[in-house]
Amino acid sequence: MWKDEYTRWKDFSDLDEKLAVQLEKIVEDEASLEDAFYKNLEFGTGGMRGKIGPGTNRMNIYTVRKAAEGLASYVNDQGMSKRGVAIAYDSRYMSKEFAVETAKVLGHHGIPSYVFTSLRPTPELSFAVRHLKAAAGVVVTASHNPPEYNGFKAYNEDGGQLPPAQAEVMIDFVNQVENELNVEAADQEQLEQDGLLRWVDEDVDAAYMEALKTVSVRDDLPKDLSVVFTPLHGTARHLVEQGLKQNGFRSVHIVEEQAQPDPEFSTVASPNPEEHQAFELAIDQGKAVGGDILMATDPDADRLGVAVPDENGEYKVLTGNQTGALLLDYILGQSASIPENGLLVKTIVTSEFGRVIADSYGISSLDTLTGFKFIGEKIREYEQSGEYKFLFGYEESYGYLVKDFARDKDAVQAALLAAEAAAYWKSQGKTLVEALDTLYQKHGYFLEDLKSVTLEGKSGAETIEKIMDDFRQADIQEAGGKKVVAVEDYATTVRQLVQEGTTEEIDLPTSNVVKFILEDDCWFCLRPSGTEPKIKFYYGVKSSSRRESEELLASVKAAVDQRLHAII
């Protein structure tokens, strides 16, 4: 019962003073109390993320300590405690405090921590784990969530987010912590004196900047490009700005109103480059300086959004699928040499556009489940086996990785490559929009969309489960006039071939995802978010023209919406 959990907290004599005050403020609001205590904040395969505040279902020093205790057990179990843990954090409320609390718990177990002195991007943490030869890593971030959220993401010794097998081990250790209020944390000053809390900064920065030099595909390009960049109040300014200048871009304009870290993200409704409103100030500046390309990163700098002028001089915000296609085509088309065993890695909800482009260059492609940890896992697998050479990885949600010195999506790398691709196409007399049209004319007009439905709290979780059950059990024959040719249920890893009346196994880990493959390269997919109270609907279509694809996409979405509205 949630009331028992609330009482346990209320009666805890050493409860943090700030949390005690916050708890007192909601004591008369039973709905808020229930939401704060009706469950434990879940530590899943992507770590944990939630609203900041008191309660077992909130991000606070106690739930963070619980996660850190599980991490300490995991590192000790792997026999790597002496190698330590690298820890980074973003600009959110309580980020540095949570980072230090993590180090204090690890230090209690004799595990050293390498903590950045100030905020750093997620991809630099991924790099730092490898550079420092640490046993694991932690990033305190809630990515692009609203200001009231924060999170805890765990990384393995390879610098990637924990894949399922490792994640399950750590999740078990976290769940073995019976009382988060009793997790012991060492004294910070004593840890510093004992060398168990080590502050890091410039040395790792310098090594990462050196690695960034390898991202460039062509050093001979003219760099007379006007670049506008906004870090959206997050962590990316220094690395992106210095990286662009290091690669020869001299006309770099920073959106100063969004350049400083701000936990409120006060100039945007959402610090998410997937949202077009996040580009409003960048567009204003782009018009003022004649920007050839506008770029925005989310607070922890693992996602990149790009906007470029269209034929009318108005800025068009590209989708993640479009940016990924442009970057992939630039790499494959302009690299001095491409290995025969080169590989594109994308996710099951990412456009088929990338696969078609890779095919045209004779390059293999591979799908993974949603989540960059699966791409990172494949990089490591093929690095060890030598079967493939990783060339590029991306997902529709604005995440890209060019070089594998990081093992998570890296908006800093992507920003450098996007600027270089724009410079190349400018040298050919084209904008990136015109370059994209060239690819569409060659490969077909691919068009995608995403709809997220937010359903918070206990009732919301139940509704999401109901939606997934309904679509799984329904005998859906068509959508938008396109016949269903296959249904892929990743929870059972079974692909049902509708016309043949047969089934086959999907060679991927289990996940609560169901995908409907329609005829003529069309599809839609349902996936509950692992980090937010949302269910996501993904759509993809292909035709010979933009207009036809737009009409087809609208028809498929309408068919899915009709069924959804009948459920909720």
Rg calculated over all Cα atoms: 24 Å
Share of β-strand residues = 15-25%
Backbone structural class: alpha/beta
Report the span from N to C terminus: 27 Å
Question: What kind of assembly state do the chains in view correspond to?
Answer: single chain
Largest sheet: 8 strands, antiparallel
Overall outline: globular
Classify the helix fraction into a percent range: 25-40%
Overall pLDDT level: 95
Number of helices: 18
**Low-pLDDT segments:** none
Give the strand tally.
23
Task: Summarize the structure in words.
With 568 residues, the protein is of the alpha/beta class. It has 18 helices and 23 strands. Helix 4 crosses helix 7 and helix 10 (237-246) packs parallel to helix 15 (411-427). The chain is globular, with a radius of gyration of 24 Å. The model has no long low-confidence stretch (mean pLDDT 95).
Keywords summarizing the entry:
single chain; 23 strands; alpha/beta; 21% strand; eight-stranded antiparallel β-sheet; globular; 568 residues; 39% helix
Give a quick rundown of the structure.
This protein has 568 residues and is of the alpha/beta class.
Q: How are the elements arranged and paired?
A:
Elements: H1 2-10, H2 17-25, H3 30-37, E1 48-51, H4 61-77, E2 85-89, H5 95-108, E3 113-116, H6 122-131, E4 136-140, E5 149-155, H7 164-175, H8 188-194, E6 197-200, H9 202-212, E7 227-230, H10 237-246, E8 252-254, H11 280-289, E9 293-297, E10 304-309, E11 315-317, H12 320-334, E12 342-347, H13 353-360, E13 364-368, H14 372-385, E14 389-395, E15 399-401, H15 411-427, H16 432-443, E16 445-454, H17 457-473, E17 478-479, E18 482-489, E19 494-497, E20 502-505, E21 514-518, E22 522-528, E23 534-543, H18 546-567
Parallel strand pairs: 2-3, 2-4, 3-6, 7-8, 7-9, 12-13, 12-14
Antiparallel strand pairs: 1-5, 4-5, 9-10, 10-11, 14-15, 16-23, 17-18, 18-19, 18-21, 19-20, 21-22, 22-23
Helix pairs in contact: 1-3, 4-5, 4-7, 6-9, 10-15, 12-13, 12-15
